[in-house]
């Protein structure tokens, strides 16, 4: 995880959008993860988790924005795009980013259970997997983590 000064105002703005999507996911009783896909300062797609809503185990926020990003650009290659996501991507989402040739992934909270950018495994930097993925973690990590903690605390104690 990187110190806050590594990130600029645009990074904070787009992560703020991802947090809005995560909060909306929590309101739908989804695990509160949000993502925003950006190219040249323009938002291509935004989404929160929708696994419960869709009944689709792959409906993670990252997968949803990659799908929409490909549709909106007419190209599955998103090499000049940046993905902002509130939680460190899991192996499935990280590999989808690799397949989409994402230029940069910026994530918020570390995921000590499924994190694939160094918390559990480091598939982003693994030299056996190509192309390598540029990624930076820790942007708004406290806000992202608090949202997840509140969600799971409420799930354990519904009163």
Q: What's the helix and strand layout?
A:
Blueprint: H1 9-27, E1 34-39, E2 42-48, H2 51-54, H3 61-73, E3 82-87, H4 91-100, E4 104-109, E5 135-137, H5 141-156
Parallel strand pairs: 3-4, 4-5
Antiparallel strand pairs: 1-2, 1-3
Helix pairs in contact: 1-5, 3-4
Structure description:
With 159 residues, the protein is of the alpha/beta class. Helix content is 39%, strand content 18%. The chain has five helices and five strands; from the N terminus they run αββααβαββα. The chain has helices spanning 9-27, 51-54, 61-73, 91-100, 141-156; strands at 34-39, 42-48, 82-87, 104-109, 135-137. The chain has a five-stranded mixed beta sheet with strand order 2-1-3-4-5. Strand 1 (34-39) and strand 2 form a beta hairpin. Helix 1 (9-27) runs parallel beside helix 5 (141-156) and helix 3 runs parallel beside helix 4. It starts with 8 loop residues before the first helix and ends with a helix. The model has no long low-confidence stretch (mean pLDDT 95).
Shape annotation: globular
Radius of gyration: 15 Å
Report the average pLDDT across residues.
95
State the assembly state of the protein chains: single chain
Give the spatial strand order of the biggest sheet. 2-1-3-4-5
Task: Please describe the biggest sheet, giving its number of strands, its sense, and whether it closes into a barrel.
Answer: 5 strands, mixed
Write the H/E string, N to C. HEEHHEHEEH
Low-confidence stretches: none
Classify the helix fraction into a percent range.
Answer: 25-40%
Distance between the termini: 35 Å
Structural class determined from secondary elements: alpha/beta
Binned strand content: 15-25%
Q: How many runs of DSSP E, i.e. beta strands?
A: 5
- Per DSSP, the total helix count is 5
